[in-house]
Amino acid sequence: EIVLTQSPATLSLSPGERATLSCRASQSISSYLAWYQQKPGQAPRLLIYDASNRATGIPARFSGSGSGTDFTLTISSLEPEDFAVYYCQQRSNWPPYTFGQGTKLEI
Amino acid sequence: EVQLLESGGDLVQPGGSLRLSCSASGFIFSNYHRSWVRQAPGKGLEWVSSISGSGGGTYYADSVKGRFTISRDNSKNTLYLQMSSLRVEDTAVYYCATQGAQNYFDFWGQGVLVTVSS
């Protein structure tokens, strides 16, 4: 089973700042990685798929990069609505699909 | 607009059974994999089970294998999860999700709470 480790666990920033979230895989997953955003009481929402492709309707301030074992989600300039929990997820070697433990982005 | 609506969540005793349903509207998902993902209170996301578009392929997390059964009725655009021998650790919000062509979880339902407690 592929383990995804996200860092940091919590990231404290202010609106307008740049956010950089990391996800590391226990073995190479090529580019088969997605990022999701989850707000309290809501279902997750797909942001990025295949490491760097924005899902439909996702603002351009969200970008993803990486391949192999190291991946990054960048939010170029934080908006108030971006404060949430972010998860990475791999589909390289499934089942099982696996998720990272999440990064909480807080003000 | 695509909508997924789960139902069937409840409070059940350990060892009990429950069936979850997820009906879809706004899109026909018969060609796509569909899945269940759960989230224990205050915890992260855990994939539970997936089923292929035809229903011929089913996949389970080790934690639920042999206890849960996923199925679908494409004529009703509905996904099911039959859960038996429930444990306290199965307590979670269960989300249904549909995977698009890229095989990620594109669409999610609002989630349904399953509580296993005596």
Folded structure, characterized:
The complex is a heterodimer of chains A (107) and B (118). With 107 residues, chain A is mainly β. Chain A is 0% helix and 48% strand. Chain A has strands spanning 4-7, 10-12, 19-25, 33-38, 45-49, 53-54, 62-67, 70-75, 85-90, 98-99, 103-106. In chain A, a hairpin with a 6-residue loop joins strand 4 (33-38) and strand 5 (45-49). Chain B has strands at residues 3-7, 11-12, 18-25, 34-39, 45-51, 58-60, 68-73, 78-83, 92-99, 105-108, 112-116. Chain B is mostly beta strands and 118 residues long. Chain B contains no helices and eleven strands. The mean pLDDT of chain B is 94. In chain B, the strands form two sheets. In chain B, strands 2, 4, 5, 6, 9, 10 and 11 form a seven-stranded mixed sheet that branches. A four-stranded antiparallel sheet of chain B has the order 1-3-8-7, with no helix packed on it. The N and C termini of chain B lie far apart (40 Å). The radius of gyration of chain B is 13 Å and the shape is globular. The chains are: A mainly beta (107), B mainly beta (118). The interface between A and B is medium-sized, with 24 and 21 residues.
Relative strand content of chain B = over 45%
Biggest interface in this structure? A-B, 24 and 21 residues
**Bulk shape of chain B:** globular
Average pLDDT number of chain B: 94
Give a short summary of the structure.
Chain A is mainly β and about 110 residues long. In chain A, about 0% of the residues lie in helices and about 50% in strands.
